[in-house]
Recover the amino acids of this structure.
């Protein structure tokens, strides 16, 4: 759409700008302050980038980052194909489609700590359905003791919680395809695979980009569900970046390191999202 | 003829080579069905636990409640009369009820506030070019990417200095950090779908801007406003880290009340399960109202 140049439009944006800036810029400046200062009995002194050097060199941060990356890529590799497959198999309209959508959207509206608590109860080895069943069929499973079980549970929980988002987005993308495309494909005698590869996939490109972007950001920030389910354990095996950060900032009150870590963390998310956003926008223009 | 029929028709009409595949399409419903069953299983387990007595829970595995009890729900909802100043029975822990009330209050406050500021901003982004508009839009989106854990500590200082710590207003304002970018994003998508000629015709007809906006424009994007409200509600309702950090006693949300029980779990699993079931209900009601718009909202809003 052609837009008219109008500088007075700034006035309409001002309230949003004010509220978001208050919430985003002021805390960000506080974090930046902490990250270059040392607090010693109420005295603040400028120390330069030592906290950053500390954090980047610390094994604790590096291992949390590795775990975070492993987690994020695993859930992306599961959720995106699974979500697309489910969306392709869903009815296109009518009562069953509505019912599917309502039931699938339900996990998205459950408070995150309830999700954690629910999976805790579900996975308990003695009285939970999952834990009891797995142990009954001879698999040694205990998510509070074994790192492998804990990882399995955390990933299954995330798949349970968020695959629906991918399904809804992919489904919305499929709905927007004009039926003439299918008609043309039928005339050409295109196979099911060809219809998917050359009609459905390109049309879903935009929503899938958003799906990947959202799932990347949200899984990079994951805190509540995992913290309720495993508390980062057993040991440190499920301590992802956010959990580590909260332990550092609220648990140990180590504000310098926590602030430096916050900034590194924020910049990483920002960089990946910016890259992804720019690349896809360029792809659209071409 | 629906799209589904056309698609299966398309496959049936394809050459014989592909006809073998149509046998697979008749089993298509199996995939979403299995997925929905997988989604419902943990929820069923939670409901199952909420109707059990503590003795039964600790007694061992059982797929349904043997001694069915509503005590867990009674323990949580016993504080309800206090909302309108009534008296509650002795030994009742009213923090549960107040947790629900606080949560609903800040979620609603957040939704109203977000819509009030996001509507004009989204209109500006969809209709006008102005200095720095694209940068501003991307900057707004970056706030959706900020990990809440980064902001937890500074938020305590910020809202304490404004004397708003431990009030529902603090949580409602803090949640604006991600609800406003989202709302602007969704609304801009819906507004761009309305032809600009409608605005121009209205101005020619002598409508002032506020009158045009409320009388003509808002009804046109009513479904968009509904979807936006749904997402504001959703993200504010499910968020816990900020809501918990910004409150201590007075404005404690239900999600924070629950963590108190979670730490002593094993003995109060039934109570925890019942509280969990009660937090699912508002979400289910809201989904029911927007069920026809969910898919459209995701597509247009690019959420």
């Amino acid at each position: 759409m052609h837009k008219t140049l109008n500088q007075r439009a700034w006035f309409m944006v001002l309230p949003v700008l004010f509220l978001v800036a208050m919430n985003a810029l002021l805390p960000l400046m506080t974090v930046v302050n902490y990250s270059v200062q040392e607090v010693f009995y109420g005295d603040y002194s400028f120390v330069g980038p030592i906290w950053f050097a500390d954090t980047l060199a610390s094994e604790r941060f590096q291992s949390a980052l590795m775990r975070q990356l492993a987690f994020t890529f695993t859930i992306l590799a599961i959720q995106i194909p699974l979500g697309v497959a489910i969306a392709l198999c869903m009815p296109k309209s009518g009562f069953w489609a509505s019912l599917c959508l309502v039931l699938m959207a339900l996990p998205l509206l459950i408070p995150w700590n309830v999700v954690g608590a629910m999976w805790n109860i579900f996975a308990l080895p003695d009285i939970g359905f999952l834990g009891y069943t797995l142990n009954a069929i001879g698999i040694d499973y205990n998510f509070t003791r074994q790192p492998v079980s804990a990882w399995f549970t955390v990933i299954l929980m995330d798949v349970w919680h968020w695959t629906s988002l991918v399904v809804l987005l992919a489904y919305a993308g499929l709905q927007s395809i004009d039926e003439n495309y299918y008609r043309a494909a039928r005339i050409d005698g295109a196979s099911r695979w060809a219809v998917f590869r050359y009609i459905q996939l390109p049309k879903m490109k935009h929503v899938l980009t958003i799906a990947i972007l959202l799932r990347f950001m949200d899984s990079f920030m994951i805190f509540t569900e995992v913290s309720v389910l495993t508390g980062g354990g057993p040991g440190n095996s499920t301590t992802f970046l956010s959990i580590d950060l909260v332990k550092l900032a609220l648990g140990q009150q180590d504000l310098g390191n926590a602030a430096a870590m916050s900034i590194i963390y924020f910049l990483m998310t920002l960089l990946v999202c910016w890259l992804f956003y720019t690349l896809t926008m360029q792809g659209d223009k071409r | 003829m629906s799209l589904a029929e056309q698609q299966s028709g398309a496959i049936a009409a394809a050459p014989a080579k592909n006809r073998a595949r149509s046998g697979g399409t008749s089993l298509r419903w199996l995939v979403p069905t299995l997925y929905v069953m997988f989604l419902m299983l943990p929820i069923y387990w939670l409901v199952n636990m909420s109707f059990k007595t503590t003795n039964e829970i600790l007694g061992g595995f059982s797929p349904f409640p043997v001694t069915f009890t509503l005590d867990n729900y009674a323990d949580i909802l016993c504080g309800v009369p206090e909302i309108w100043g009534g008296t509650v029975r002795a030994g009742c822990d009213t923090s549960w009820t107040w947790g629900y009330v606080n949560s609903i209050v800040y979620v609603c406050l957040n939704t109203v506030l977000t819509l009030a500021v996001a509507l004009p901003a989204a209109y500006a982004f969809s209709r006008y070019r102005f200095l720095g508009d694209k940068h501003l839009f991307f900057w707004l989106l970056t706030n959706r990417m900020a990990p809440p854990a980064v902001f937890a500590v500074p938020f305590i200082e910020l809202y304490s200095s404004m004397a708003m710590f431990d009030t529902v207003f603090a949580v409602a304002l803090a949640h604006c950090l991600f609800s406003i970018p989202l709302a602007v994003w969704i609304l801009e998508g819906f507004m761009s779908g309305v032809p600009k000629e409608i605005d121009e015709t209205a101005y020619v007809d002598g409508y002032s801007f506020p009158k045009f906006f409320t009388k003509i424009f808002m009804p046109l994007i009513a479904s968009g406003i509904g979807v936006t409200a749904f997402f504001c509600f959703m993200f504010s309702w499910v968020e816990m880290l900020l809501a918990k950090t910004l409150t201590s006693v007075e404005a404690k949300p239900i999600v924070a009340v629950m963590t108190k029980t979670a730490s002593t779990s094993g003995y109060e699993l039934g109570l925890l399960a019942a509280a969990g079931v009660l937090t699912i209900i508002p979400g289910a009601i809201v989904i029911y109202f927007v069920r026809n718009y969910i898919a459209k909202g995701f597509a247009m809003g690019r959420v």
